[in-house]
Write a structure and sequence with these properties.
The chain is α/β, with parallel strands linked by helices and about 200 residues long. The chain has four helices and eight strands, in the order αβαβαβββββαβ. The two termini are about 25 Å apart.
Amino acid sequence: MDYKNNNFNYFDYIPLLTCIYNLIKLRDDVPIVVSDVYLPTAGEAGSDYQVLPTFHMDIDVAEVVDIYARPLPAASIAEGILMGGYKAGPVIAITLGPAPRIAELGGYVVDLSSRGDPCELFKRRAVGYSPELFKGVYEVEPGLCDRCGDCYRTRCPALKIGKGGVPELGADCVGCGACALLCSRGAIRRTDDVSRVYL
């Protein structure tokens, strides 16, 4: 990945957003995710000028990013939100470099220039991101799948609807593991690491 020029491969980025999606999807508060990188979403979201927080169910994992305002750095925007006294939920910044002040102000940082597991974001206020943590060969165990559709939130073109509605991984699967991270039933797993427990 070329973080400096902001050239991201879609499949390198979705495991990160999947981790964050899993961490915030069941929260009762209103998290704000500010990012230095952009991943297009499936739907066209219109402007929301509501003053009060509203319930929103993400269509895909790319929608977890609330603010992308390049060339303004995510760290500066997140600091402004935290200094403004935002208390309705966690403020998460996905940055292209270290941003220690955000953690000092009570926010959370995913530093794309360092290595680490973003799924541990709420255990540690600052984490890195290593796409190779999620790389592998994955398979679907039909007997464990209840056809909930959570895995399709990745919008991955390698994930197809198979016989009986059970997802199938096509030959174009790059092994990013995002579908396995979203599968809470354990029906999609890495073949060389079947004992690993996913969020």
